[in-house]
């Protein structure tokens, strides 16, 4: 058993998102809304979505299998597996139990952990559980593995363009290139009905959009103040945004990310006015006397603070926005897709940098924490993580469907939600090689999955069932 692990954090990452997507500008035209409502108003470019072949289980199987294979990880080396998701497949059986098929094939059934659920926060809860386990006396020397997976879908209407789907897997252990600064963490949790899913017969949430944005910013304020206090206790000096090289946010839509970073700058101004610079200080001074409640509803403050924050936003936040804008809202995977975007865009220059992370889940739960980047050892290096995730190739190989086809798919998914005794019917050619997919749900609601594997001559595909048997499929 290893003792006193140092530099505990993320050793390796991989991300999966469906290859099917719809362009937001095409949705604007189809929905008959004003041009720019989704692309500028929400700040979104594209939205991934699941067909009947895919769900949070298949995405999790795909990303875990890929991570283990591409980094050469022996499945027996995994000692804890935590899944974060708010997408309900079964009210009792955890997503983690489906993933155990991968490890049982290698004789490893001694893996702690199950699922964590609270809206978009579940992935962070799972991540903190794994980090705490490695840092604790209970650690047995093996790796932790975290999966954040969700399919975000909304009823027809103004919220539908804020959907998306993805799964992110993270390997946790000591001597990591991405280290948790565990002493510096701020958490805020309270009771709110801003977004919730009380109707178990429907996949769609009940959303109070205005309240949800206010709750998000309240959680951000509280977490940032507590994070700053912890930092100042540990370092003996004030913390401001100048101490963070990059900032990644949970991203329901990009416009909220822009508002959130501006809010952090306003927090710096409120705490230590001189930390934001003379020009910003002069422009924010008229709003210094606002109460917290009034500041959340002030459109003038929102506009001015975003203008003041824009130059810093372009440097510290913009690199994190690629996947959230291209894939959409990924719920629990959203924050970690933003971090994956930073690695993709900046991996050559990240050593020694600090990334500030804000996680939010409605209802509500929120945490701010920081990661410090250091030089890793192969295969756990930032360059290799960027190569494995292969973000550009995954984005470039997507199939862009029309809004009409997207709507047809949404209707199909509505009829299949909670259904039994059906076989999936969508085109397998839309799946990337290596993707796990749902083959059928039987009369007892049992779900069966297969993996698309390209044959050597590429004349037909082969399908590897989840139990390891290979079958030809024309």
UniProtKB/TrEMBL annotation:
Residues 5-177 form the Hydroxymethylglutaryl-coenzyme A synthase N-terminal domain. CDD domains: init_cond_enzymes. Keywords: Lipid biosynthesis, Lipid metabolism, Steroid biosynthesis, Steroid metabolism, Sterol biosynthesis, Sterol metabolism, Transferase. Pathway: Metabolic intermediate biosynthesis; (R)-mevalonate biosynthesis; (R)-mevalonate from acetyl-CoA: step 2/3. Its EC number is 2.3.3.10. The active site is at residues 86, 120, 250. It is an enzyme of class 2 (transferase). It catalyses: acetoacetyl-CoA + acetyl-CoA + H2O = (3S)-3-hydroxy-3-methylglutaryl-CoA + CoA + H(+). Residues 178-452 form the Hydroxymethylglutaryl-coenzyme A synthase C-terminal domain. One of its GO terms (biological process) is sterol biosynthetic process. GO terms for molecular function: hydroxymethylglutaryl-CoA synthase activity. It holds the Pfam family HMG_CoA_synt_C. It comes from the Eukaryota. CoA binds at residues 212, 255, 259. Belongs to the thiolase-like superfamily. HMG-CoA synthase family. Catalyzes the condensation of acetyl-CoA with acetoacetyl-CoA to form HMG-CoA. This is Hydroxymethylglutaryl-CoA synthase. It comes from Ginkgo biloba (Ginkgo). The lineage of its organism: Eukaryota, Viridiplantae, Streptophyta, Embryophyta, Tracheophyta. The gene is HMGS1.
């Amino acid at each position: 058993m290893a003792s006193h692990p140092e530099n505990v954090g993320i050793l390796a990452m991989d991300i999966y998102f469906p290859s099917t997507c719809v362009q937001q500008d095409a949705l604007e035209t189809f929905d008959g809304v004003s041009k720019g409502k989704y692309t500028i108003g929400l700040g979104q470019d594209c939205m991934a979505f699941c067909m009947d072949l895919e769900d949070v289980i298949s995405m999790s199987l795909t990303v875990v299998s890929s991570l283990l294979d591409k980094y050469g990880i022996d499945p027996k080396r995994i000692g804890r597996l935590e899944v974060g998701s708010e997408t309900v497949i079964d009210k009792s059986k955890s997503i983690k139990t489906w993933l155990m098929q991968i490890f049982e094939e290698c004789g490893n059934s001694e893996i702690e952990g199950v699922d964590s659920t609270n809206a978009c926060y579940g992935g962070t809860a799972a991540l903190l559980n794994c980090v705490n386990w490695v840092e604790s006396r209970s650690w047995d020397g093996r790796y932790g593995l975290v999966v954040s997976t969700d399919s975000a879908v909304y009823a027809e209407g103004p919220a539908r363009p804020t959907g998306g789907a993805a799964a992110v897997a993270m390997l946790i252990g000591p001597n990591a290139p991405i280290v948790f600064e565990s002493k510096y963490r701020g958490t805020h949790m309270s009771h709110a009905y801003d977004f919730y899913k009380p109707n178990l017969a429907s996949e769609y949430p009940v959303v109070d959009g205005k309240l949800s944005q206010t709750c998000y910013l309240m959680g951000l304020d509280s977490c940032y103040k507590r994070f700053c206090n912890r930092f100042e206790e540990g370092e003996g000096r004030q913390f401001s945004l100048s101490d963070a090289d990059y900032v990644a946010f949970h991203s329901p839509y990009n416009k909220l990310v822009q508002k959130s970073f501006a809010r952090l700058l306003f927090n710096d101004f409120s705490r230590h006015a001189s930390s934001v610079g003379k020009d910003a200080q002069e422009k924010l001074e008229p709003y210094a006397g606002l109460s917290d409640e009034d500041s959340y509803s002030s459109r003038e403050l929102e506009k001015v603070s975003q203008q003041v924050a824009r130059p810093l936003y372009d440097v510290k936040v913009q690199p994190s926005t690629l996947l959230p804008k291209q894939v959409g809202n990924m719920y629990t995977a959203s924050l970690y897709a933003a971090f994956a975007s930073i690695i993709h865009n900046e991996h050559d220059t990240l050593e020694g940098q600090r990334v500030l992370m804000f996680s939010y889940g409605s209802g509500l739960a929120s945490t701010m924490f920081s990661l410090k980047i250091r030089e890793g050892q192969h295969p756990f290096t930032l360059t290799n993580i960027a190569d494995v995730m292969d973000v550009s190739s995954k984005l470039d190989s997507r199939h862009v469907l029309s809004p009409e086809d997207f709507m047809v798919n949404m209707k199909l998914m509505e009829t299949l939600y909670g259904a039994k005794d059906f076989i999936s019917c969508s085109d397998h050619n839309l799946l990337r090689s290596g993707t796990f997919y749902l083959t059928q749900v039987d009369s007892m609601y049992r779900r069966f999955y297969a993996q698309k594997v390209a044959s050597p001559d590429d004349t037909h595909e082969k399908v590897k069932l989840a139990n390891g048997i290979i079958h030809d499929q024309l």
